[in-house]
Amino acid sequence: MWRVPVLDVCYSVSAGLERYAAMTVISERIDRCRICAIRHQAVCGALSDHEIQALSAVARQRVLKAGDVIQNAEDEVSSFANIVSGVVKLSKVLSDGRQQIVGLQFPPDFLGRAYRTRSPFYAEAATDVELCVFPKRSFEALMADQPELESRLFQNTLDELDAARDWMLLLGRKSAAEKVASFLALIARRKAPALCEHMPADTLLTITLPLTRAEIADYLGLTIETVSRQIGNLRAADILETGANRTITVLDYDGLAEAAQL
Amino acid sequence: MWRVPVLDVCYSVSAGLERYAAMTVISERIDRCRICAIRHQAVCGALSDHEIQALSAVARQRVLKAGDVIQNAEDEVSSFANIVSGVVKLSKVLSDGRQQIVGLQFPPDFLGRAYRTRSPFYAEAATDVELCVFPKRSFEALMADQPELESRLFQNTLDELDAARDWMLLLGRKSAAEKVASFLALIARRKAPALCEHMPADTLLTITLPLTRAEIADYLGLTIETVSRQIGNLRAADILETGANRTITVLDYDGLAEAAQL
DNA sequence: CGTTATGTTGATAGCCGTCAACATACGTGG
DNA sequence: CCACGTATGTTGACGGCTATCAACATAACG
Fold this sequence. Notes:
Two copies of one chain form a homodimer.
Chain A: H1 13-23, H2 26-32, H3 49-58, E1 60-64, E2 69-71, E3 79-85, E4 88-93, E5 99-105, E6 110-111, E7 122-125, E8 129-135, H4 136-144, H5 147-173, H6 176-191, H7 193-197, E9 205-208, H8 213-220, H9 224-236, E10 240-242, E11 247-250, H10 253-259
Antiparallel strand pairs in A: 1-8, 2-7, 3-6, 3-8, 4-5, 4-7, 9-11, 10-11
Helix pairs in contact in A: 2-3, 6-9, 6-10, 8-9
Chain A binds a DNA duplex through residues 1, 175-176, 212-214, 222-229, 232, 244-246.
């Protein structure tokens, strides 16, 4: 009655990872962080040029394809990572297969948890993903004599906690229509925060959803059929248009926000 | 159609607080932390005897009655606190009055948030509550030269994040019966963790629920009627008995855990 | 003892889940 | 480039779970 979670996906990244490592020469490594796209937003922004070289030396790029597993629930976790590009979903599963996505992580979010050795959830690449992976030990050593780094991680965690609690309100108290509108508004804001603040009358905001209908349903506590119908309703209300390839075009962000009860 | 949140409760604590302060003499203050019941579990456990005296000097005891407001959403927050006794509920409210409890805090949990000046939710005493309140500044100063203190706070936040995500699974994917059983199991575990681990055949575990039916409903994303009916079902299944004064007696904890899909 | 808050129980309705059939997109191999 | 099979998405019919409305019971409190 419930879709069984795909827990048997192999760690198919290792091949691609080794290829990358083989191509990488030492000099590139040391400089990699300096030219990193998320250098200043990510937690590593707390580090000086000197420190970041130390981190750079032990960092590994890891390229994942949509659907690749990052960690299984209860896995021993021996590394931390920054999301450089793509979207990662964190989910929990009941013994009978019912599933709930408990977090969506975007760049430059941090993956992995200080003070814990086991992951409390299952993590998977929702889209193609680039990670910047650090060995847990090296990172913790750096954290020990760089309190600012721990502070950044702490603040990141506080943001996640706020997001989780906002989502609890959605899961517990919003209708299916409000849930779907809330999700679409969330993705739209990620894509173009400025546009959503004040959207000129005849602007088109086209976004590609990072999740399938099944994943949206698992994020919102709904079924795929209900998600599909609610998106249909929003289309009928001229709030958005749908295209191929998981793209939607938001015609009326204010209408969307209103439908979401934001 | 939805119960309107009680946001107009006055800060009726101040009277009680001032009375307490008047009774307190300096010598008591300095020693108060040393004899504190939650001294070693709370975040202050990170501090040396010397440091804790400094904290002790600026700490204030605050006694609240059930229903007293601790902070309104969007309030400027100028203090931190430890919960010494009682239960505090954190909740979020939609513009039309729909309400969701996003956190239940027990001793020795910490209230208040580093790196933020405004509360993202509404906090209220669910039962009579004793708080140990610190001015934000003093506490932050102590945090600045005691990294261990920040680490403790960080770990506390990580635990809250885990709890929030567990609750997301409940809100999004569990049935009403499972939700109510999960809540009762949660409270039972708080009250007597050891008993719940392994419960001898003819043991009675009696607990007083810290929440009214309306609050339980707001915690579980249900209505009061549904909560009442589900408790009735558990009684009919001989899993528990109900008494006056919000007490319930768990007859079969394993049955409760099973009904909760734990 | 009266009044109000809280909790219980029943009848009914509606939202959303379930089941089913179909449509479309995607990827692979010819 | 096209054919095929699979994954994903849509739409309809129906039913069940839980919200709603209502009446009543019990507890709490002055």
